[in-house]
Amino acid sequence: MFAIAIATATWSGCAQWKSEPPPELARGGLPPAQVADEVAILEVAFVRLPEASPALPETPGAASFVDRLDETVVPGEMRERLATNGIRVGRLLTIEPGQMGEAAPADEATRLMEEANVVSDFEQRRRRISCRDGQPYTLAVRRPSGERVSTLIRTSEGVVGKSLSDPQFMLILRTRMLDDGRLAVRLTPEVQHGEVRQNYVSSDLAIRMEFQRDQWTLHELMCEVPLSEGQAIVLMPQKEAFGLGKQMFVGERADLSQERIAVVLRLQRRPQHGLGS
Length: 277
What we know:
Elements: H1 2-17, H2 23-26, E1 40-48, H3 62-66, H4 76-84, E2 87-92, H5 108-116, E3 127-131, E4 137-140, E5 148-155, E6 158-165, E7 168-177, E8 183-202, E9 207-217, E10 223-227, E11 232-237, H6 243-249, E12 250-252, E13 258-269
Antiparallel strand pairs: 1-3, 1-13, 2-11, 4-7, 5-6, 7-8, 8-9, 8-10, 11-13, 12-13
């Protein structure tokens, strides 16, 4: 009798909890990710430039966009300052098919190294960044060099030089909405260097540990470019690479060959709030 009572209770309990899973879970998937209205989505790619080496496979479309940059979107004084440091910046009005795609690896060994992300000084995979107005995002351009490097920056006050231990070249990215509905993307070069230090940072809620290196933020080389959806910013070295442009955008592959890259940031989605669309 006791066993019958348990069986009856168990059966009744299961019946009460029975429910149909959402259709996407029933198909073995997950619900689609929800993106907040105030978030902009930027797609980032490191595109190999054809000047690097005839032996290297270039990214499809790379040669064509080099000649289609609108550099006038950067004020003349800032454009000249970037150029004197070996950096070229412009905006692409349109992206052709394949321009943000990765070139197919030449062999199986290269494919495995690319999957492990050790084939190059630069990131091989495209990725998307979620940006909120005013919040900084640190984008690593190259891996740490592992050695001491002298870096010279030409500013309006003259040449500033530093000898840096194990530098890593970065871009600090911030965005803000403009009144005309476009998104302004601000990029500031930064060099992180030296030993990793442990710091304790206090807030109203808790004390947390942070691990960071010394930072040399190059505010004088900050540039800002307005984008509509589908448009992109391109940063690359000058044709004859030198200075900071060479240190940021020219590196080595695992086979010791040299490669030049362009950093391409495409606005995939602007913030949706307050746009009336």
